[in-house]
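Figure 6 in text form: structure in, sequence out.
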């Protein structure tokens, strides 16, 4: 059991500044469209210099992020910080929260750990925070999509948004998987001046009476539409069979059918196991 410090705004700012420094170091080009769909920034007139967004009841949101690589979440996190100095609280695995090194960082950043056996406590905690005005970030695919197409999503995002009465902000990230994903570790050469494309879709309002599965499939479609928009004007031409492009676009990634077979062969993630 790792040491669990209290959530710290100062620590969160250290994380953000580290991410920004790495982007500057490798001269990564972050290209964003759809900024107007992000929640309006809260006034910071009376806040101390460098403070983050104040949490205002009724102004929370679920931020749903695509998951093709291990750094997608970081670029979405930096986007919200650039836009509104907003801190996002991620739902993370209990394995990460219990890790000797990552655990204290998870706690200090105020993230929400999802237990091995049941996520009910994390779900209730996330809904309460949404009602208080926080941004809760979710990777609804619940694992890296090795086909680089948005895979089947869990219903947690739409259920939480409906129960808390907040919108879902869909954030599609393309290109960050080239920096680090399954079976492709981080490469400084590949990261140098690499483009990362982000598209923010229209906020999704979830009707509590709507079937969660149908609402989730609609969200999946919005996230995939964002990925399609990112690919359409991505400033990097891929070679035929490039591993980081989807199969239906001539890339070397597995097809959705192959991805499903590979996922099924691995079986469910065990307690304490690695995230897919």
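Output sequence:
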């Amino acid at each position: 059991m790792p040491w669990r410090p209290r959530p710290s705004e100062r620590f969160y700012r250290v994380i953000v500044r580290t991410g920004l420094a790495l982007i500057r170091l490798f001269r990564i080009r972050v290209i964003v469209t759809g900024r107007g769909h992000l929640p309006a920034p809260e006034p910071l007139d009376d806040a101390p210099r460098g403070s983050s967004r104040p949490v205002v009841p009724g102004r929370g949101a679920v931020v749903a992020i695509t998951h093709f690589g291990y750094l997608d979440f970081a670029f979405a996190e930096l986007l919200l910080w650039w836009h509104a100095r907003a801190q996002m609280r991620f739902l993370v695995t209990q394995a990460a929260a219990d890790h000797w090194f990552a655990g204290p960082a998870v706690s200090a950043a105020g993230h929400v750990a999802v237990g091995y056996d049941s996520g009910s406590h994390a779900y209730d905690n996330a809904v309460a925070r949404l009602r208080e005005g926080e941004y809760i970030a979710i990777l609804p695919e619940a694992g890296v999509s090795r086909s680089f197409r948005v895979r089947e999503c869990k219903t947690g995002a739409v259920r939480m948004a409906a129960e808390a009465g907040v919108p879902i902000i869909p954030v599609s990230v393309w290109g960050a998987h080239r920096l680090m994903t399954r079976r492709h570790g981080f490469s400084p050469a590949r990261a140098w001046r690499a483009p990362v494309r982000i598209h923010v879709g229209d906020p999704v309002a979830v009707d509590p009476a709507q079937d969660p599965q149908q609402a989730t499939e609609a969200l999946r479609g919005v996230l995939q539409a964002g990925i399609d928009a990112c690919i359409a004007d991505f400033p990097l031409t891929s070679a035929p069979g490039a591993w980081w492009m989807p199969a239906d676009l001539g890339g070397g990634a597995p097809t959705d059918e192959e991805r499903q077979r590979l996922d099924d062969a691995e079986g469910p993630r065990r307690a304490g196991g690695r995230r897919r």
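Caption detail: Residues 270-276 have pLDDT under 50 and may be disordered.
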